[in-house]
């Protein structure tokens, strides 16, 4: 502590030190009171929604693989069957 010749000046100096310390503390409180950066909030919301979408799609895919019956194949037309048999070298029945 600094001593100035008379006690009233010393008292004023101590009060000034005390007040400046409190003001520094208020600056820190004000910085904390502002909260998150708005850009950070938007980023977190967007990333959260994308993750929710991907997890939901995966859950639906797993559910569909377990519970839904497999797709029925389309019937092959007689014309296509004849063509395939001719390509393989087997004559079509009835010809």
From TrEMBL:
Stretch list, region Disordered: 70-95
GO CC annotation terms, alphabetical: nucleus
Subcellular location: Nucleus
Transmembrane regions listed in the UniProt entry: 40-64
Basic residues compositional bias, start-end: 70-85
GO terms, biological process: regulation of DNA-templated transcription
Family matches, as Pfam families: S1FA
Statement: the UniProt record of this protein carries the keyword Nucleus: yes
Main location per the UniProt record: nucleus
Protein keywords: DNA-binding, Membrane, Nucleus, Repressor, Transcription, Transcription regulation, Transmembrane, Transmembrane helix
A GO term for molecular function: DNA binding
Cited function: DNA-binding protein that specifically recognizes a negative element (S1F) within the RPS1 promoter.
Family as reported in the entry's similarity comment: Belongs to the S1FA transcription factor family.
Protein's name according to its UniProt entry: DNA-binding protein S1FA
Organism name: Stephania cephalantha
């Amino acid at each position: 502590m600094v001593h100035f010749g008379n006690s009233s000046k010393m008292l004023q100096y101590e009060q000034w030190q005390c007040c400046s310390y409190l003001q520094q503390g208020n600056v820190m409180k004000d910085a904390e009171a502002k909260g998150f950066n708005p850009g950070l909030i938007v980023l977190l919301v967007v990333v959260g929604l994308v993750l929710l979408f991907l997890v939901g799609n995966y859950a639906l895919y797993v559910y569909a693989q377990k519970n839904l019956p497999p797709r029925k194949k389309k019937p092959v037309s007689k014309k296509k069957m004849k063509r395939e048999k001719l390509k393989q070298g087997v004559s079509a029945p009835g010809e």
